[in-house]
Design a protein that fits this description.
Layout lengths: L6 E7 L3 E3 L2 E2 L7 E8 L2 E9 L4 E7 L9 E10 L11 E3 L4 E10 L3 H4 L5 E10 L6 E9 L6 E2 L2 E4 L12 E11 L7 E13 L5
Parallel strand pairs: 4-6, 8-15
Antiparallel strand pairs: 1-6, 2-3, 4-5, 7-9, 9-12, 9-13, 10-11, 10-14, 14-15
Length: 206
């Protein structure tokens, strides 16, 4: 297809009937009909004798505007509901429940049209050991977008570090992987954040 000069030449097979004005028979020296596409209308320009069974259609390029949007991921945090804890929320007993959360925000003109689609926001949280060790999958938090809502905070509740495989005397870096889109299909938005550290200790050493 030639798109030089803002026009495109498209060769397509001739159908049995082109229009009420023209009836073409295949297999003979059929006529070539040149059509010009302009302002969303097809108008006949010329009719030329040609031995090929094809139609040549010349059209102008169509411009499609897609409203841009931005998705930001941040404010990764770990916290506990225990009001009596004396340790920072990133230093937890091995049996202490805790939660991990992150902030997802949509902005831009396209976000107004995007969030009413009820897309799935999926955030997977991981604990990666600083040093030797195996990355632990903490779990996944899922929430759907809604009209006129542009900020979301998926929260994952973890029953305890030891129950998900976090080891004592290890320092872990918490990571969050974001996927936004329809469940079961490739994600429209993918991103990740990391940097927060987590430490598990034994509250009752021997």
């Amino acid at each position: 297809m030639d798109v030089a000069g803002g026009a495109a030449d498209l060769i397509v097979p001739i159908p049995e009937f082109i229009s009420p004005r023209y009836r073409l028979k295949k297999g003979s020296a059929a006529k070539q009909i040149l059509l010009t596409h302009c302002h969303n209308q097809l108008t006949t320009c010329t009719i030329e004798d040609t031995p090929i069974n094809k139609i040549a259609i010349t059209g102008v390029n169509t411009q499609i505007n897609i409203a841009a949007f931005t998705c930001s991921l941040g404010d990764l945090k770990v916290f506990t509901d225990d009001p009596d804890t004396v340790q920072p929320h990133t230093i937890l007993r091995q049996d202490e429940p805790f939660s991990a959360a992150v902030r997802v925000e949509f902005s831009g003109a396209g976000a107004i049209a995007l969030v009413p689609l009820e897309m799935s926001i999926q955030v997977e949280f991981f604990a990666h050991p600083l040093g030797l060790g195996v990355t632990v999958e903490l779990g996944k938090a899922t929430i759907n977008t809604a009209a006129h809502v542009f900020i979301y905070t998926p929260i994952l509740n973890v029953t305890g570090g030891a129950k998900v495989g976090l080891l004592l005397e290890k320092i872990y870096q918490i990571r969050a992987l974001l996927c936004v889109g329809a469940s079961g299909f490739p994600a429209l938005v993918v991103g990740f954040t990391e940097g927060l550290t987590l430490q598990i200790y034994n509250a009752n050493p021997d």
